[in-house]
Amino acid sequence: MKKTAMTISYELWGKLYLNITNKCPCACTFCLRQNDDGAYGSDPLWLEHQPSFDEVIENLKTRDLSSYKEIIFCGYGEPTSELDILLKTAEYIRSVCDTPIRLNTNGLANLIHGRKTEQDFNGLIDTVSISLNASDSEAYMAITRPKWTDKDCFAEMLSFAETMKKYVPNVILTVVDVIGEEEIAKSQAVADSIGVTLRVRPLETK
């Protein structure tokens, strides 16, 4: 049985993570939420209900936002699923502190909302970290298991990443280190092809 709470923000490694939604269009094979209620010892990240923007801000007002190395939209859902809350929250953070803001995303916001969303992030996000997960479309679909089985979600994600370079200073594609050296090399080639950085991260970090 899932343990629920209203853990809208949680601290790890000197950073503040924002868990603004549990909605996600993917069911990634490696996702933490497949097997646990929290992340790295946090309180449960399954939300009792979808928080409103006001609830998110009330939570943030209990934190010293300027004290963190980074503030990161990353929880038990895809943050862009609640795009309006994400953007308004980033605007609020910008208004009260200079702490860098990062978005961890699957890069499928355009499919989620049925429109181009990249320009929405202009001036609000310092770094966008997009889960590449695999070096080709077939492997990507098998790993991420998105709800759009009739779409080339791999191509959509890469298009999002490439376009985001116009609006966000740092655009990164990520893979986890368990995929092996050959797949990492292929992933590096994918990142190079669209002119963004590849980050190979340990499975246990975000």
UniProtKB/TrEMBL annotation:
Keywords: Iron, Iron-sulfur, Metal-binding, S-adenosyl-L-methionine. It comes from the Bacteria. Residues 10-206 form the Radical SAM core domain. GO terms for molecular function: catalytic activity; iron-sulfur cluster binding; metal ion binding. It holds the Pfam family Radical_SAM. NCBIfam families: rSAM_pair_X, tatD_link_rSAM. This is Radical SAM enzyme, TIGR04100 family.
